[in-house]
């Protein structure tokens, strides 16, 4: 269960409590779900009880007590604990959550994390004639598009001796002004050049160096593409051993193998949806955030891959099939994220 899905589960619990007459409130449009803070417990926490306490005319602890049974019986939830002053701390059913997440990624493929949160929204940006601004606008348009919105790019006219009238543009136009690259990134090639321009935050000065071409783990782009290629390789090797991926069985997202990777993959929809919740002036950093997230997924994937295939005379088991499914899901997320940055994800590297 992803944080986005858990947020919907929390709202469903509120709706059920209202329908049962235990709460007299308007069901909010959104429930905030975060990692537990100091003193918290479980996998996630929500402050929905604090949010509803005043309109319900009850204390946050009382609202939390009302909501707890509805949340506890929700699919994918293993338990709910209440902590002061009224936080609901939610523990997930790891096996069910891991299986559901991997099945969802397999079903949605490269569109995992896409939504209609920005459906009908059109954003206008002005882009100067600058390589980094152009690449940033293109990647931002892809991410906004993944959330159902549309980015209209207006190019600033170059300075000429003969002035000409500019096409009309919206008054609310946002101008992209990332720190320019110190030199032409073209010699790096298409993919490395885009990564060099997108990986740093827009206000940071990008490095246009051959480091982006180095085939070693010191190069973040290499780690991301290598991790993706490795997931494809283990699939080919598993086929050679006579087995394929199958979500379920022994959890690959439990307390041991795959726990960190599972959490990272579950966070992918939130990373993409962030662009829908931030002011436009901050949303321009979405490509950089996505790039850094992909590096974290790649590192988690590379750490997890050694346990996927059987070792020595070991026979493939349900655990291996489940781990392979999680590894393939990670490869899908890496490929989908790179495509939103306009970067290729090769199967062989």
Automatic annotation (TrEMBL):
Superkingdom: Bacteria
Domain Arginyl tRNA synthetase N-terminal per the UniProt entry, residue ranges: 4-92
UniProt-listed Enzyme Commission number(s): 6.1.1.19
Name of one Pfam family that matches: DALR_1
Domain DALR anticodon binding: 224-349
UniProt entry keywords in alphabetical sequence: ATP-binding, Ligase, Nucleotide-binding
Catalytic activity: tRNA(Arg) + L-arginine + ATP = L-arginyl-tRNA(Arg) + AMP + diphosphate
Name assigned to this protein: arginine--tRNA ligase
Organism lineage string: Bacteria, Bacillati, Actinomycetota, Actinomycetes, Kitasatosporales
Recorded name of the encoding gene: nrtL
């Amino acid at each position: 269960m992803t944080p986005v899905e858990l947020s919907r589960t929390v709202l469903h619990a509120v709706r059920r409590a209202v329908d049962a007459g235990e709460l007299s409130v308007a069901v909010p449009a959104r429930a905030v779900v975060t990692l537990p803070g100091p003193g918290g417990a479980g996998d996630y926490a929500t402050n929905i009880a604090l949010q509803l306490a005043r309109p319900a005319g009850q204390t946050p602890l009382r609202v939390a007590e009302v909501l707890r049974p509805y949340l506890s019986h929700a699919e994918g939830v293993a338990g709910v604990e209440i902590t002061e002053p009224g936080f609901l701390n939610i523990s997930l059913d790891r096996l069910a959550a891991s299986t559901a997440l991997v099945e969802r990624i397999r079903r949605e493929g490269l569109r995992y994390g896409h939504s209609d949160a920005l459906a009908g929204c059109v954003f206008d940006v002005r882009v100067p004639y600058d390589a980094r601004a152009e690449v940033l606008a293109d990647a931002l348009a892809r991410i906004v598009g993944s959330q159902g919105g549309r980015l209209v790019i207006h190019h600033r006219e170059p300075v000429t001796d003969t002035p000409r009238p500019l096409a009309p543009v919206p008054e609310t136009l946002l101008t992209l002004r990332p720190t320019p690259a110190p030199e032409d990134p073209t010699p790096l090639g298409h993919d490395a050049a885009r990564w060099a321009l997108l990986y740093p935050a827009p206000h940071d000065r990008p490095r246009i160096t051959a480091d982006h071409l180095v085939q070693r783990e010191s190069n973040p782009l290499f780690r991301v593409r290598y991790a993706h290629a490795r997931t494809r390789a283990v699939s080919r090797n598993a086929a050679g051993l006579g087995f394929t991926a199958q979500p379920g069985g022994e959890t690959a997202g439990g307390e041991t193998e795959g726990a960190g990777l599972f959490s990272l993959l579950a966070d992918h929809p939130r990373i993409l949806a962030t662009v829908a919740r931030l002011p436009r002036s901050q949303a321009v950093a979405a490509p950089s955030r996505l790039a850094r997230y992909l590096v974290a997924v790649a590192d988690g994937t590379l750490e997890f891959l050694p346990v996927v295939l059987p070792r020595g005379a070991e026979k493939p088991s349900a655990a291996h099939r489940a781990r392979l499914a999680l590894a393939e899901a990670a490869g899908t997320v890496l490929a989908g994220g790179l495509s939103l940055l306009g970067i290729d994800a090769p199967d062989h590297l």
